[in-house]
Predict the structure.
Amino acid sequence: MIKIDQVKKTFNRGKKIVLDNISFQINDGESVAILGGNGAGKTTLLEIIAGVLTPEDGRVYFVDSENDSKINKNLSELEEVNIKNKQSNKKLKNKEWLLKEDLEKNVGFQFQNGKWPFNTRGIDLLNFFGTKNWKSNEYINMLIDVFEVNEIIKKRLNKCSGGEQQRFNCLLSIINKPKILILDELITGLDLKMQIKLINFFKELKKSENITLIIVSHVPEEVEALSERIILLREGRIYLDDSVDNIKSKYKSVRELLTQFYASESENYEK
């Protein structure tokens, strides 16, 4: 389970609040879409969950909800200064950080853009992130075929198109079989054929491996295909947190929800 507890993030020396005391949790094996307009804090939230960014306030906890309920039960105690049994609290902190460290090794993040050193080829990154014997690795070769990067991995990545880089970034995000997978605008910049192929691939991967899936997307149909739950952000706060089934029951589709949501945003802006 991932627990986001009162997370706050600002930029421009605190003048711009991007995330304003966000709190929610994601259960093991759950698929959640983080939605909102540009600047709502979606990518910032993903990067904080993945450990790329650090919040000013609040924390992100990785908790083994099945095997260590004690840690989950006592998370709030970790921030208290006046705890009678300091030795017990220290043990709990150590245990939590060991668990957190173990789970963070199993987080895969598909970045929108990969900024690699000049002259870096896909083959170099396969050697680094995967294994030097990747050519005989059945799983990695399956991914190369799925993402159609057979020729891309031979090229300098800075010479590849945005869509080619996107496909290779997707491959890297799951090369080590993560338990938690974060996809940031998965199908942006891809042609329709590849969009359909990747949505179907990740849908099947989610089902077969029971991974925890977190996505950001501006494509409602992708959200419906990959997600069970939607968290909608507005100005750094949670505007809505509900299941896709409930949303479809009320609005008929995710697209209609977002149409109404962005229409209300425009009205508020005009006022």
